[in-house]
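Hey forum,

I'm writing up a methods section and want to include a predicted complex as supplementary material. The small molecule is zinc ion. I've pasted the protein sequence and the SMILES. Can someone with a working setup run it? I'll credit the forum in the acknowledgements.
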Amino acid sequence: MRCPFCPFTGARGDVHAHLVSEHADGVEIWAISDSRRRYLVTCPVCGAAHEARVKPRSKDPDFLETFAREIRMVAYDMLLNHVTVEHPELMVTERSQR
Ligand SMILES: [Zn+2]
Ligand SMILES: [Zn+2]
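Reply by user p_vandermeer:
Happy to help. Structure tokens for the complex are below, copy them as they are.
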């Protein structure tokens, strides 16, 4: 499948890892309170937004940095599920294009 943000193409797991490391700013994370965070991920293809609440297990600042990465992993998993259903044109493999 293809990355919805750029021409990067690979297996779903590769695209997921690519999104988490290369498109970190595609997921917005903000704090509601010390114990609550929300994230928002917007589909770059159609603009559909997915928002959810997440609860950190710790208030340790180092943990929150790790946690932000975990949130991006969850958020991009949601985005890839959306892309699989709504944007089959991105479900290409290198070999299918001839
Ligand atoms: Zn990309
Ligand atoms: Zn979409």
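Some notes you might quote in the supplement: The beta strands are 27-33, 36-42, 49-54. Helices lie at 12-22, 61-86.
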